[in-house]
Design brief:
about 160 residues, alpha+beta, Aminopeptidase, 7-stranded mixed sheet, 4 helices, 7 strands, about 30% helix, transferase, L-amino acid N-acyltransferase YncA
Length: about 160
């Protein structure tokens, strides 16, 4: 995608996106940018049909998923230790589409959804070795928390 003008479509993830999302995760793992991948069934349960899901948005070009962003509600005892009632965000962009503005476009849409959902805080947990991920979240308004690798976006009340 580098140096190309292409139309990126953003839309809510659907069940038939599970394999495309899985492909993005596998490409990130192969590139050393993610520890685990996930098959289509795992993607369904973790991102598309998760009971705490607020929204999962895919970015696609020519019918192919090139990235996605997940926003879910932190409930008591969530596996991330995120405070209850906050949002939990995850962003995953195919390496071939990195640094093309896809993440910022996804964030714009996700932040609107977070505001409508009444969230006041959204947390992202990024590996401390992931300089690109830390820079990305900083570029969209997230600030460092007291915990290494955790960034928080404080949202206004609407």
């Amino acid at each position: 995608m580098e140096n190309q003008t292409v139309e990126v479509i953003l839309r809510p993830a659907e069940e038939n996106d599970a394999q495309g999302i899985s492909n993005v995760l596998a490409a990130l793992k192969a590139a050393g940018k993610r520890r685990t991948a996930g098959d289509a069934e795992e993607v369904m349960g973790h991102y598309i049909t998760h009971p705490d899901r607020i929204q999962c948005t895919v970015a696609e070009v020519d019918g192919q998923v090139i990235g996605f962003q997940s926003l879910r509600l932190a409930t008591l005892g969530n596996p991330y230790g995120t405070p209850e009632g906050w949002g939990i965000i995850g962003t995953h962009i195919h390496p071939s589409a990195a640094r093309c503005g896809v993440g910022k476009r996804l964030a714009g849409q996700t932040i609107k959804v977070a505001l409508v959902a009444g969230l006041r805080h959204v947390e992202a947990q990024i590996g401390t070795e992931n300089a690109a991920g830390l820079a990305y979240y900083g570029s969209i308004g997230f600030v460092d928390s007291d915990e290494a690798g955790v960034k928080v976006l404080n949202l206004p009340e609407i």
